[in-house]
Structure of Tryptophan halogenase:
Amino acid sequence: MNDLRIRKIVIVGGGTAGWMTAAAMARLLRDDEISIRLIESEAIGTVGVGEATIPHILYFNRLLGLDESEFMRRTHATFKAGIEFVDWGGLGQRYIHPFGAYGEPMNSLHFHHSWLRYDQMGKAQPLDKYNLIVEAARLGKFQKPEGGRLNASSGAYSYAFQFDAGLYARYLREIAEAGGVKRTEGKISHVSRQPETGHVESVTLETGETVPGDLFIDCSGFRGLLIEQTLQSGFEDWSAYLPCDRAVARACERVAPPLPYTRATAKSAGWQWRIPLQSRTGNGHVYCSEFISDEEALEGLNRDLDGPVTSEPNFLKFKAGVRKSPWNRNVVAIGLSSGFLEPLESTSIHLIQSAIARLMENFPDKTFNQPDIDYYNRRTQLEYEQVRDFIVLHYCATQRDDSPFWNYCRTMQIPQTLADRLAVYSENARLYRHDNELFDETSWLAVLHGQNIRPKRYHPIADIMPAAELETRMKRIEGQVAAGVSLMARHPDFLERYIR
Ligand SMILES: Cc1cc2nc3c(=O)[nH]c(=O)nc-3n(C[C@H](O)[C@H](O)[C@H](O)COP(=O)(O)OP(=O)(O)OC[C@H]3O[C@@H](n4cnc5c(N)ncnc54)[C@H](O)[C@@H]3O)c2cc1C
């Protein structure tokens, strides 16, 4: 029988996607007979943005065996308990999408059904008062959720990081190289394909060196050197739902203690991010070029900076959408080459991580079994669609009518999958998590409620609990949240202790 095992893996690109893939493969494919080669071009460079993450990165870091405090020191990371959205539902409004649950289930129902009933009774505090991590974050407090009284007192929570993605990629490079990955510096100028199968056979660098491979991972960024420029895999354009197509990023000095959350402030033709790191604050303006010029976008960003600038503006162009076949023949696209969803919910690094996990699950041999490839592509498409719908929700669930951009977003046609979800929630407050999707009921509730979508009714089973019992439980949760918050450290103090 022929030996069908993959022996030569070539990763094209050394941005966050390339080095995350290389580090994970070095860890998971430990085999002297498998060579992993990463090619990157310093002359081309990386996109150089991407600072906020979601809690799933904890699993990735654990897979690599990273020591968390060392990782945080190396990447100048701060803790992230969620995202604060300012001016999204309406001007002057704000809410936090937290990485932790509201209250606790009652009668096996999600907490918000009981809260809606309690609210109708005229007794409820604002929903946030039943969420430990939201209340703590608002006061600039954060502490890791490890046992003790904090966890016992109320809903569980998780956390993520805000970090310097360039430093993260450098750190992962060390891990990957220590695990046997060979790095080649240089620009690929030619790609050769097998005439019969159309598979990529080798890439040739400007130096003349040719690198053959069995499996190619395209981490070449927006250009999609192999997946698009060579294999023309196609792109599904979602810019009608997500019209922002540009960003300008710029760092400034941090002038206040770091908050344990990312802030996303809606602007007249897009939104601005503010991400506190240990060493600086990352800022950016994501905007729609149909409604605002690059100069205006930069002016707006500069106006809102907290401190003196520490970098030149970095302008980026993009289009929302997904690659039609992110796995095509013997090429798998990971990172920006596989699709792009704007960074409103900090999902890109997660999409890299989940593509790596999916590839490992479906790791091929040289037959490149088409049903496996089809399965991988269907899963990728579904994941992108689910994240897309969640991001679109922030734009369509708005009452803003103060600019042509918001008038477009408020009235645009939305994906049917999202319209169905909104219809169900608006009627009877039900939230469904489809197929183990990334964003759970807490996330959907935070944004729906935060942007003033109020359901007509709640779940009928929420009426079963006697009113007195409901009141007792609600007061207990509220008290536990307040007590838990009072025990928490200030984020800068906890961070300082943790990284020392
Ligand atoms: C405005 C903006 C904000 C973002 N914010 C976040 C965020 O907060 N959180 C988050 O998770 N994600 C964020 N992202 C996404 C994040 O930046 C990317 O997912 C991440 O950086 C991965 O990029 P990449 O590695 O796919 O591509 P790139 O960083 O572009 O890397 C491409 C690599 O390919 C190499 N290359 C290309 N062509 C060739 C060639 N011909 N020869 C050799 N090498 C080549 C380049 O040298 C480079 O090493 C943001 C993105 C944008 C645009």
User: Anything to note?
Assistant: The first strand starts at residue 8 and ends at 12.
